[in-house]
Specification:
The protein has 254 residues and is of the alpha+beta class. The protein has 2 domains: 3-146, no CATH class; 150-247, OB fold (Dihydrolipoamide Acetyltransferase, E2P) (Beta Barrel). The chain contains 10 helices and 6 strands. The protein has helices spanning 3-18, 21-33, 39-44, 49-68, 76-89, 101-110, 121-127, 136-146, 219-224, 239-247, and strands at 150-157, 163-167, 173-177, 188-195, 205-207, 212-213. It has a 5-stranded mixed β-barrel. The protein is globular and about 60 Å long. Mean pLDDT is 79; it is low at 224-254.
Amino acid sequence: MGRIARKIRRELERALRQKTASFEAFRRGKERAETIKSLGQLIREGIDPLHALYANTTNLAGLFMEDLVDLPFLDRRVCAFIEQVQDDYQAGYPPMSPITVSFYMHWLLYDVRFGADRETIGEWLLGVSDLMKFHYVQVEALRNLCNSRIGIFEARPRDKGRYGLRELITGREVVAVIPSGYNNSHAALMLTRVAPPLNGVDGYHVSITTPYMLLGTTEHHSRTGGTAPPPSEVWSGRPILAGVHIQGLCEFPR
């Protein structure tokens, strides 16, 4: 656990004992958490169960981030950074924005690293998950999300609506669902984030961000970092370039 995570835990423990202003922010956060769709609701709406678990956990992490910026002990540079990237990227969906909400939120929560110990917001939440009464399955899902990353995959259709995803860098292949409405009968290259099944479950992986399709791009091109294809050959024009740009913000000044 990094220094910022330890500080957040100490402050939250103190707030719970003394019921300070930080406790009020924590209490409001718990109340707001009850307003987001539960895991059961998401599954009843037809969302894949594994995807529903990861989506629900990320929604809770997003609420945690919103509560953090209101706490006086948090470094103001963290708050300024979060506000700045929200203004810079205006996450939404093409054509209004090249950055989808799922891509942006997972990047901000699980990729951007803060402080000397290079900690993520997801890791801060993981450090207080017991104080926030997380179910052990949610803790495992959160840990998996903290360990996840964006990758370039070759997607090949399999049976039962699933796909074989082979990561180009490592060559590792997994069977996964792509629940964003993706439906392709041919092999294709995509930029996405993949999360694993739960520990001890011989199941499938899940693509947890809307995939960016690398149209007009070959595997050799992606491996060697060749010149980007013309905008007309990239889905919606800008997403791939934006994806490369957004990776440049994964370090926060110490």
